[in-house]
Amino acid sequence: MNKRLKVAVTDYGFPDLHQEEELLRPLGFEFATGQCRTPEEVAALCADADAILTQWAPVDATVIEALQHCRIIVRYGIGVDNVDLEAAAVRGIPVVNVPDYAVDEVADHAISLMLASVRKIPQVVADVRAGEWQIAPRRPIYGLRGRTIGTAGFGNIARAVIQRAQAFGMDAIAYDPYVKDDVFAERGVRRADWATLLADSDVLSLHLPLNAETRGAMSQEAFRSMKPTAYVVNTSRGGILDAEALAEALRDGRIAGAALDVLEREPIERDHPLLRLDQCLVTSHCAWYSEDSLLRLQQFAALEIKRLFTGERPRHIVNKVVV
């Protein structure tokens, strides 16, 4: 391929871009990189790009309007709420995500948060360090066998979470109106509507995309519908859960605990009320991370560009574009 092509990397948190360069430079791509934070910065970097790789930078309608000959936008990760999908579709630009790079890592993290919350491990560790030694600490702690794990969403990560939870002897239910009945049956999972999911889950693990339908789904009303002994785990998107409503629910004892890897505003403010609640654990949006998944993310994202520019169809197009 003789023509020089440009891939614009709007922003990234990786040590380097060796994975992407090894795959795309042989095709004639040159790299333009930035750490863009505003649409104006993104537009300036990407206006003449043939392909875009983006992590968190806003690729909104004004950016897409400024693109001269871009053929693909790839998001490093699963969620695509930083990209205007409709504007890209109008321009005929496929938006592609990478949903399969960290399924095991996120599932492992979700289960780890569940175990740490239900077993109250951080609190017990803190007690021991403070000189308190109790063989039945932080009562009540309940066993997992026979309890119900529910997942909001039933995609790849939710299924991996349920598989792990079933190994602990937990029953499983899931809410996902877009998944067929036979998929539930194959995995021994009971289909639930939203109200049943909230009412029956002893542990509720969130695995929803962020969109107009799901934003704020975990509201005051949702927490009021849950068991007072229930726990919530969120490793999907922060905007699904109303953090203020969660703090109120925890303070009032409407649910027993929560563990969050994502919040609508990140990083979390140091004086955030959730950080003052023992029954809430917060990790730093790191569920996706392992050294293995880091390499897969970069490689899989670059492969989607390579596919398009070598005559193949990208595997994970998320907007309605004919390629």
TrEMBL record:
Residues annotated as domain D-isomer specific 2-hydroxyacid dehydrogenase catalytic: 30-319
InterPro entries the record matches: CtBP, D-iso_2-hydroxyacid_DH_PdxB, D-isomer_2_OHA_DH_cat_dom, D-isomer_DH_CS, D-isomer_DH_NAD-bd, NAD(P)-bd_dom_sf
Domain of life of the source: Bacteria
Gene Ontology molecular function terms on file: NAD binding; oxidoreductase activity, acting on the CH-OH group of donors, NAD or NADP as acceptor; transcription corepressor activity
Annotated ranges, domain D-isomer specific 2-hydroxyacid dehydrogenase NAD-binding: 111-287
Residue ranges crossing the lipid bilayer per the database entry: none
Coiled coil regions, renumbered to chain: none
CDD domains, alphabetized: CtBP_dh (cd05299)
Alphabetized UniProt keyword annotations: NAD, Oxidoreductase
Recorded family membership: Belongs to the D-isomer specific 2-hydroxyacid dehydrogenase family.
Protein name: C-terminal binding protein
